[in-house]
Write a structure and sequence with these properties.
The complex is a heterodimer.
Chain A: H1 48-73, H2 87-96, E1 102-104, H3 110-116, H4 121-128, H5 137-140, H6 151-165, E2 177-182, H7 189-200, E3 205-211, E4 214-215, E5 218-219, H8 228-231, E6 239-243, H9 247-262, E7 268-273, H10 292-299, H11 303-314, H12 319-341, H13 350-353, H14 361-382
Parallel strand pairs in A: 1-2, 2-3, 3-7, 6-7
Antiparallel strand pairs in A: 4-5
Helix pairs in contact in A: 1-2, 1-3, 1-11, 1-12, 2-3, 2-9, 6-7
Chain B: E1 2-5, H1 6-20, E2 24-28, H2 44-48, E3 53-55, H3 60-72, E4 76-80, H4 91-98, H5 101-104, E5 114-119, H6 134-138, E6 144-147, H7 151-163, E7 168-173, E8 180-183, E9 196-199, E10 204-208, H8 212-225, E11 230-234, E12 237-239, H9 243-253, E13 256-263, H10 268-280, E14 289-293, H11 304-307, H12 311-323
Parallel strand pairs in B: 2-3, 2-4, 4-5, 5-7, 6-7, 10-11, 10-13, 13-14
Antiparallel strand pairs in B: 1-8, 6-12, 9-11
Helix pairs in contact in B: 1-7, 3-4, 8-12
Classes of the chains: A alpha/beta, B alpha/beta.
Domain Dehydrogenase E1 component (chain A): 58-335
InterPro entries (chain A): Alpha-ketoacid_DH_E1_comp (IPR050771), DH_E1 (IPR001017), PdhA/BkdA (IPR017596), THDP-binding (IPR029061)
Region (Disordered) (chain A): 1-34
């Protein structure tokens, strides 16, 4: 019992260099069969409690995400972008963050949000259409979802420049910034500019690319000839390819990149090789561009199944624990669901209230007009 | 009072901002060692250091995108876009990010970012160096848009823009950069979003901003010789527009001509004409007329004298107004 390191068991079977032929060579600490494999650059220092915690995060993230899809199907949300299949990429990286670190998400990062301990309601409010996803981003150290692909990479680079300007790097207590984006984002100018900026200004930034194989319907073949983790070198930035379905590996590589950033050693790019098991969003029809056989291949690499297998084999958790987590996930889902369906529509006036810090006369006039017009309609419908 | 060029006036305004506001930063292409291609930031890097006056990589989206990030961290960046025609690579960051993020946040996020853009023609430049893109930004909710027309305004408006908690797109008429005029370095009598009556008159109101204010003033001087008394209003702020002095003037004169370099269709002049028609309909003796650039891409420089509104075109419009 306790916090001693848990090295991989030395068997011929689980020596590094993994799985199937169609996988690139990436950092992997837990193979799809649930066996630990060693990597010379990445050791783990988690306590048993933390190991179990990762499982809890994975399961609860998956269940909350599934509820997003369900709520959309029931007409309670306008849209839901599912993260199914990407839980390990998000939980591993999310748990590697320290309190002082700051996150810039794309729009599918429910798992990271969960790990940060932030109220998830804002993400559901956004997709319900009752607001635009506003939160206290400074207190949360988790910025708003960014729908225009890769736009947030520059915000994160600038923020990280500010961290460096503040002198908040250079020690163990230094701050790091992580920005999430997808494989499609790597084709955008903003992504490439962010790498240049972070590089030349030595900003404490980690670009975390969830390569889930699809930008809506387009595969990696339409986004790049050289994968992002290799392209990083062209910017003078270390690039790391990691098994995105391995929560231990994503944790280890992110922690290492964040530590590098917080010590003032500059930016890194992590490419988490994973798979989007659901369509792009609930509005997408993935059957038009991929087949069941491909999905089956990735089902075999499921991030939760392999981790559960390992926990059991290590004696870290068993049936009772798994049942307990299932029950907790169920409670979390119900709690969230109740809150989401109780979100009421905003007042007409709200669209005018946050446009400017310093008020504009025209907007005051338009606000009064819109409110009065709405009121006149409501009166009409009551009579 | 001291006499200086608009470039010097902007420079002194920016210097004051850097002195008083420790979170203020200047960032852009060539703004540091070179002092900007127009020398607006001359000497600032030397005095405030490259950590506050930042030569950026050559990528406009990156300039605005990272300025947003710096603002999220508590900084107050003043960005320079080198020329009007180079702003478009930053369009998403300006229109979808800078303009909308504060609103998206429900007012919890404020982005005090100034984007300086030298604009307009009349300097014999090659393509993409003479444009007037202000209507794009004035059409975008969440941005405030201003244009200075003289050194005194330049000196004060840049400081007021830097003090604003809203994003401000700050247009500088590059053909007026070197014209000298008096600057009151003690105090300013106008707010950032106030229009200014720069010449009083009773027969017709000429409304201009940026580089065309000088054109309108020359036209008014010429008209005076012919016995016509023109009032000239400098809009100064294009979004929001300070309607009250415009409407009051037009109610008195009954005639209005709007002058700008940007193409006329869908431009600032169209908004001014529509609004004055709505608010001053019974006072108008003639429709509000526009004197603007044509609806063509900015022409080769040997043709720009034919493209730009000039004294004769303004007077011609005034004549037409009196024909109604």
């Amino acid at each position: 019992m306790g916090d001693q390191p848990r090295p991989a068991k030395k068997t011929a079977k689980n020596r590094r260099k993994s799985a199937s032929a169609n996988e690139p060579e990436f950092v992997q600490l837990l193979n799809p069969g649930g066996q630990r494999v060693d990597h010379p650059d990445y050791a783990l220092d988690l306590s048993d409690e933390e190991y179990r915690g990762l499982y809890r995060d994975l399961v609860i993230t998956r269940e909350l995400d599934a509820q997003g899809t369900a709520l959309q199907r029931q007409g309670q949300l306008g849209l839901w972008p599912s993260l199914l299949g990407q839980e390990a990429a998000q939980v591993g990286s999310g748990r590697a963050l320290r309190e002082q670190d700051t996150v810039f998400p794309a729009y599918r990062e429910l798992g990271v949000q969960w790990c940060r301990g932030i109220d998830l309601l804002s993400s559901f409010a956004l997709f319900r259409g009752v607001d635009l996803g506003g939160r206290d981003v400074a207190a949360d150290r988790f910025h708003m979802y960014s729908i225009v692909i890769a736009s947030q990479t520059l915000h994160a680079a600038g923020y990280a420049m500010g961290v460096a300007k503040d002198g908040a790097v250079g020690s163990d207590e230094g701050e790091a910034v992580v920005v999430y984006h997808g494989d499609g984002a790597t084709s955008e100018g903003d992504f490439n500019e962010a790498l240049i900026w972070a590089g030349v200004f030595n900003a404490p930034l980690v670009l975390f690319c969830q390569n889930n194989q699809y930008a809506i319907s387009e595969t990696n073949a339409r986004q790049f000839l050289v994968p992002p983790s290799q392209r990083a070198a062209g910017f003078g930035v270390p690039g790391i390819l990691v098994d995105g379905n391995d929560v231990l590996a994503t944790y280890a590589v992110t922690k290492s990149a964040l530590d590098r950033a917080r010590h003032g050693e500059g930016p890194s790019l992590i490419e988490a090789y994973t798979y989007r098991m659901q369509p792009h969003t609930t509005s997408d029809d993935a059957t038009r561009y991929r087949d069941e056989a491909e999905l089956d291949q990735w089902r075999a690499k499921d991030p939760i199944l392999r981790y559960r297998t390992w926990l059991e084999a290590e004696g870290l958790a068993g049936g009772d624990y798994f049942a307990e987590i299932d029950a907790e996930a169920d409670r979390e889902v119900r709690k969230l669901r109740d809150r989401v369906i109780s979100l009421t529509d905003p007042e007409v006036s709200e669209m005018f209230d946050s446009v400017y810090a310093e008020p504009v006369p025209q907007l005051a006039a338009q606000r009064a007009e819109a409110v009065a017009f709405r009121a006149s309609l409501d009166e009409g419908s009551e009579s | 009072m001291t006499t200086m060029s608009m470039v010097k006036a902007l420079n002194s305004g920016l210097r004051t901002v850097l002195e008083r506001e420790p979170k203020a930063l200047i960032m852009g292409e060539d703004v540091g060692r070179l002092g900007g291609v127009f020398r607006v930031t001359d000497g600032l890097e030397k005095d405030f250091g490259s950590d506050r006056v930042i030569d950026t990589p050559l990528a406009e989206s990156g300039i605005i995108g990272t300025a947003i990030g710096l603002a999220l961290r508590g900084y107050r960046p003043i960005c320079e876009i080198q020329f009007d025609g180079f702003v478009y690579p930053a369009f998403d960051q300006l229109v979808s990010q800078l303009a909308k993020m504060p609103n998206r946040s429900g007012g919890r996020v404020r982005l005090p970012v100034v984007v300086r853009i030298p604009f307009g023609g009349g300097i014999g430049a090659i393509e993409h160096h003479s444009e007037s893109p202000e209507a794009y930004f004035a059409h975008t909710a969440g941005l405030k848009v201003v244009a200075c027309s003289n050194p005194n305004d330049a000196h004060w408006m840049i400081q007021q823009a830097a003090a604003s908690d809203d994003p401000v797109i700050f247009f500088e008429p590059k053909r007026r950069y070197q014209a000298k005029a008096e600057v009151d370095t003690e105090k300013s009598s106008l707010g950032l979003h106030d229009a200014a009556t720069v010449r009083s008159g009773s027969d017709a109101t000429v409304i201009a901003y940026g580089p065309t204010v000088d054109v309108a003033l020359h036209a008014a001087a010429a008209a005076a010789e012919e016995g016509r008394d023109l009032e000239v209003i400098d809009l100064r702020s294009l979004s929001p527009i300070d309607w009250e002095p415009l409407e009051a003037s037009v109610r008195r004169t009954g005639r209005a001509v709007v002058v700008h370099e940007a193409p006329g269709s869908h431009g600032i002049g169209a908004e001014v004409a529509a609004r004055l028609t709505e608010q001053c309909f019974y006072s108008l003796e003639a429709p509000v007329l526009r004197v603007t650039g044509y609806d063509v891409p900015y022409p080769a420089s040997r043709l720009e004298e034919d493209y730009l509104p000039n004294l004769d075109r303004v007077l011609d419009a005034v004549d037409r107004s009196f024909e109604y």
